[in-house]
UniProtKB/TrEMBL annotation, chains A, B:
HTH marR-type domain span: 16-152
PROSITE patterns named in the record: HTH_MARR_2
Residues that span the membrane, as ranges: none
Entry protein name: Transcriptional regulator, MarR family
DNA sequence: ACTGTGTAGATGCGCGTACAACGTTCTAAG
DNA sequence: CTTAGAACGTTGTACGCGCATCTACACAGT
């Protein structure tokens, strides 16, 4: 393997690989535990919870489908189906966009807000148990710093309408 | 919506929540980029790569289905189907366990090892680009320390036979 | 108004996964 | 030896996701 100036051409040590593997395992493990709790206690998938949460934090409890898809890390088609289900369950409604006939808002209903409020304690408890409680303040700060480098700032959402 | 819809012992600050969310986003992002590369360049899913890798690192290039399922973070049925596919493609073979007629080994074939060797550079390059290169040595050490707390003792695999 | 390019969502389809149930085999108690 | 229960792996089934595709609409240039 050729070595040029710059670190990116160096071989990867087994320690580095191990860090990566542990990261994967930890993330999957935490996410599954969290989702299982939500599913058992509130019959709510993690993706659904995220959608409800994003909507609840948005002005007017509404978001364009496109913007929402970006925030929830879901494909457009995936979001369409998920909103279908949430709408069927009465947690969300679709509303046309007056200034752009292509656009559609997903709007959180009162029922959806209530359901979110119900589930929030479970969610927060899970995060604390699986993640936050395990780390101290310094570690959390270090973690935040690393994440900022890993995930610069893609979410400059532009809302139209 | 406020954070404490229900009562937790200690409130979770929005910074903490934000760290968790970024962790989720970063992990999904990295994993998808990695999988996309593997798929495009070698027509190999990430889960398949992991199976091949685990087998290649195991004595005799073989592992019991159950042990393998644990290491790859897959359900038993999921692993059955995945091994079906890998076997169909000639990358893996099934072999009976002589001392336990219930048991089955998944065995890496020469073709599977070759395919793994082919794909490894892509995998390693992806990890470097998405993860390792972004962090410096200190950060990597901090990350390892945190992960050890989050995921105390992952792989205490006991091989039978 | 007309046409071409781009964007917003929805839909057909195939794939991969998990859950539950099943058959087979191992193990221990009687 | 017999039998109950656990463990291993596979199969039926349903579900969620993404890709490619489609329709409807927007906006610019002519």
């Amino acid at each position: 393997m050729t070595i040029t100036a710059g670190e990116s051409r160096e071989a990867i040590s087994s320690e580095e690989l191990e860090v990566w593997r542990m990261l994967q395992r930890a993330q999957v493990r935490i996410t599954r535990a969290l989702e299982a709790d939500l599913l058992v206690e509130h019959d709510l998938a993690l993706a659904s919870y995220d959608v409800l949460l994003q909507l609840s934090e948005s002005p007017g409890r509404r978001l364009r489908m496109n913007d929402l898809a970006d925030r929830v890390l879901l494909s457009r088609s995936g979001l369409t189906r998920l909103i279908d289900r949430l709408q069927r369950d009465g947690l969300v409604e679709r509303e046309a966009c007056t200034s752009d006939a292509r656009g559609l808002f997903a709007v959180l209903t009162d029922g959806g807000a209530a359901r979110l409020a119900e589930a929030a304690p479970t969610y927060l408890r899970g995060i604390r148990a699986q993640f936050l409680d395990v780390l101290d303040g310094d570690e959390l700060r270090q973690c935040a710093a690393m994440l900022n480098k890993l995930f610069p700032d893609p979410c400059t959402g532009q809302d139209s309408c």
